[in-house]
Amino acid sequence: MTTRRITALLLSAMLCFSAASCSDKEKGPSSSAAKTSAPPKVESGVGELITPAEEDVDSGLGSYRMSEYGTKLYYDSSVFSDELALSLDKYFKSIHDEDYETYKSCLFPSYLNNMETYLQKDFQYGMDTSFSNQCARLKALAAENYTITRIKIDKPQTEEGASTEEDYFSSFFGKLGECFGTDYYQEVKDNTDKLNEVNFTIMAEFDGAETVILSDMKIVVAEKDGVFYNFG
User: Fold this and answer.
1) Whose CB among 28, 80, 200, 214 lies 3.0–4.6 Å from 210's, allowing a Cys bridge?
2) Of the candidates 192, 209, 225, the residue with the CA atom closest to the CA atom of residue 26
3) pLDDT tens digits, residue range 167-226?
4) Residue 56: alpha-carbon gap to chain centroid
5) 69 vs 227: CA distance, rounded Å
6) 209 - beta bridge partners?
7) For 152-169, what is each residue's pLDDT tens digit?
């Protein structure tokens, strides 16, 4: 298989749901024994900032906001908007629910169209099959009956001398452009208001406990006219 084809396969499953991601799973608070104050339900969007009581088992995780999907979202609202955080929650919930139509609505439109064309041409399957594979990979990291309970998002830490966010975008979209046969980075820049490089960690509940199933992973989120879209 050529390097280009390998790159495409990795990019079409950009979240990299590999066994290595959970080889050293971190156990979270046990749902059966831990004392945790019940958060209020949120009908739409995200709720107010909640700071757990000191006696709550998850107090060390910091403050969070409940989403309309029942997920505890941890993020700095001065860095990321409520809408961006909720868009990621919706994206991961679509994978959990195996809801392909919702999943497609979370993707940047030209990414969805270009990747569909590329996969069909080079691999004889489409985004629906790629999506099914992502769903299976996430289940493999957790369990058949898992529930996503917490998502933490933050900006990647930049060390002195390390590559910049612009370097990352240039490399990431450059690789996609090689697959699509276009200057895809320029196309994306021309059709977005802002690009966000986001680190995320996901906890899920299964077998009576919460476990980190993905830790310190990276995703690109685009904003256009107040709507957020993912690439992956």
Assistant:
1) 28
2) 209
3) 999 999 999 999 999 999 999 999 999 999 999 999 999 988 999 999 999 999 999 999
4) 27
5) 18
6) 30, 206
7) 999 987 766 667 899 999
**Residue 92: what residue type?**
F
CA 71 – CA 85 distance, rounded (Å): 11
Instruction: Please name which of 213, 215, 218, 217 lies closest in space to residue 141, comparing C-alpha atoms.
Output: 213
DSSP label at residue 50: B
180 and 118 Cβ atoms separated by less than 8 Å = yes
Distance CA 27, CA 79 (A): 28
Residue 144 CB coordination number (10 Å):
7
Q: What element of type H or E holds 169?
A: helix 165-180
Q: List the end-to-end C-alpha distance of the chain, in Å, as a whole number.
A: 21
Domain tally for the chain? 1
Long-range contacts (CB closer than 8 Å, 24 or more residues apart) made by 154-161 = 154/75, 154/76, 154/79, 154/198, 154/199, 155/79, 155/197, 155/198, 155/199, 156/197, 156/199, 156/218
pLDDT, tens digit (0-9, with 9 covering 90-100), for 15-71 = 444 333 433 444 455 443 345 566 778 889 999 999 999 888 888 899 999 999 999
Helix 109-123 vs helix 3-12: crossing angle, to nearest 10: 130
- Decide if 71 contacts 149 (C-beta within 8 A): yes
Q: Give the total residue count for the chain.
A: 232
Cα gap 230→232, rounded to integer Å:
6
Structural domain that includes position 214:
3-230
Handedness of CA 49, 222, 98, 179 (dihedral sign): negative
